[in-house]
């Protein structure tokens, strides 16, 4: 398994290739652990171009897909490799071995046998990824309201204003929280 330091400056293409190669290597480890999987074809790798999902397994097409924009960030890259790679391959393995679908006991047992915690979701901050709706903080007389980027832009460009549906006050931009 190739190990990559956070300081290594790889391009997105190189990172994608690394994930593709590592997926094949991880699948070999699955086969070594569960020899019955040796009769299954090697899973193909596809890429998701948007959204907050780190990965997906297509049981019928025998494909695992990973979120390509996440690879740009070192923390996203570290989430996908190895956690998401193993998570999605475990879906294929558990389906082939036990007819498992979803995050059931069979899938969990495969994850544990491969040395991973059977968690359903990643904890990566997905703000700013393509296809992830950003929300903007505004306030009125009764509290805070989150607006979509479309509405936020209309306000910023002076095209229109919005009022709170309860207190009827005009929504104004709230102080933004600093996030590191
Ligand atoms: Zn899953
Ligand atoms: Zn209000």
Structural overview:
The protein has 4 helices and 6 strands; from the N terminus they run αβββααββαβ. The chain has 180 residues and is of the alpha+beta class. The chain folds into 2 domains: 102 residues, Metalloproteases ("zincins"), catalytic domain (Zincin-like), CATH 3.30.2010; 39 residues, no CATH class. A 3-stranded mixed sheet has the order 1-3-2, with helices on one face. The two termini are 32 Å apart. The relative contact order is 0.11. It binds zinc ion (2 copies). One zinc ion binds next to loops.
Keywords:
180 residues, Zincin-like, alpha+beta, binds zinc ion, three-stranded mixed sheet, three-stranded antiparallel sheet, 2 domains, 6 strands, single chain
What does this entry show, briefly?
This protein is of the alpha+beta class. The protein has helices spanning 12-33, 74-98, 105-113, 149-156; strands at 44-48, 55-58, 63-67, 135-140, 143-148, 172-173.
Mean pLDDT: 88
**Named CATH topology of the largest domain:** Zincin-like
Task: Round the Cα radius of gyration to an integer and report it.
Answer: 21 Å
Hey, roughly how much beta strand do the residues contain? Answer: 15-25%
- Class from secondary-structure proportions: alpha+beta
What is the class of the largest domain in the CATH system? Alpha Beta
Spatial strand arrangement across the major sheet? 1-3-2
Which term fits the overall shape?
elongated
Number of domains: 2
Query: Terminal Cα separation, in Å?
Result: 32 Å
């Amino acid at each position: 398994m190739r190990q990559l330091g956070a300081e290594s400056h790889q391009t997105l293409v190189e990172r994608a290739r690394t994930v593709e190669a590592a997926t094949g290597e991880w699948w070999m480890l699955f086969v070594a652990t569960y020899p019955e999987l040796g009769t299954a074809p090697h899973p193909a790798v596809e890429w998701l171009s948007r959204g907050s999902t780190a990965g997906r397994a297509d049981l019928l097409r025998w494909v695992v897909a990973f979120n390509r924009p996440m690879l740009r960030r070192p923390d996203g890259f570290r989430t996908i490799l190895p956690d998401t790679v193993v998570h999605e391959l475990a879906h294929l393995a558990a389906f082939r071995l036990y007819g498992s679908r979803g995050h059931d006991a069979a899938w969990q047992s495969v994850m544990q046998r491969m040395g991973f915690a059977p968690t359903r979701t990643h904890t990566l901050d997905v703000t700013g990824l393509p296809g992830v709706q950003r929300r903007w903080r505004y306030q009125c007389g009764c509290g805070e309201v989150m607006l979509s980027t479309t509405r936020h832009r209309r306000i910023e460009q002076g095209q229109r204003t919005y009022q709170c549906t309860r207190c009827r006050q005009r929504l104004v931009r709230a102080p933004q929280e600093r996030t590191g």
